[in-house]
Amino acid sequence: MQDQPLDASDFELIEDTLLKYGDDHSVLNASELDGYFTALVSSPVQVDIAEWFPAIWGGQNPDWQSPDEGKQFIELSVRHINALATQLAMHAQAFKPRFEQTEHHAQPLTLAEEWCFGYLRGVAVGNWPELPTPLAAQLQAIAFCAEQDNFEPPADLDVAQHRQQIEAIEAAAHALHDHWVAQR
């Protein structure tokens, strides 16, 4: 089915393909791609694959080593974007951003910077208009996190505050999606 969530091996293939064909102008990992697709399915208008697919690669489609490799990546991308759209529209509680994980003082720590960077890429490709003030603040929470690209947690990181910021990003994604869906 074209909206079945991807499994770990699918995401591994996506990661490998992004690393193989990506450059400084392209999406470089599954977390960033997840944020990108989340913004696209939350856009005020539907963005055609002819626009969003080349934008993954910085505007230029890869020179695939084989047609099957390109076809497989496109199929996984379409499945993932469709699964996100279904989750956000019909099963909002099932939607979980694909944030990265690291350790901080031997404890798990969620990092959202790459996801947020991808989200902003999707906002740009979707050509979002100006948002009402409360929703602009929601988008700003995502934008602020994206500005922390390559963020290394400081030794004195306030973990509780960091977790609240991560939760706010997920809530913002839901609020922005709901706003634009209601406008369509």
TrEMBL record:
Transmembrane regions: none
UniProt xrefs under InterPro entries: YgfB-like, YgfB-like_sf
Highest taxon listed in the record's lineage: Bacteria
Protein name: YecA family protein
Organism (species): Pseudomonas taeanensis MS-3
Lineage: Bacteria, Pseudomonadati, Pseudomonadota, Gammaproteobacteria, Pseudomonadales
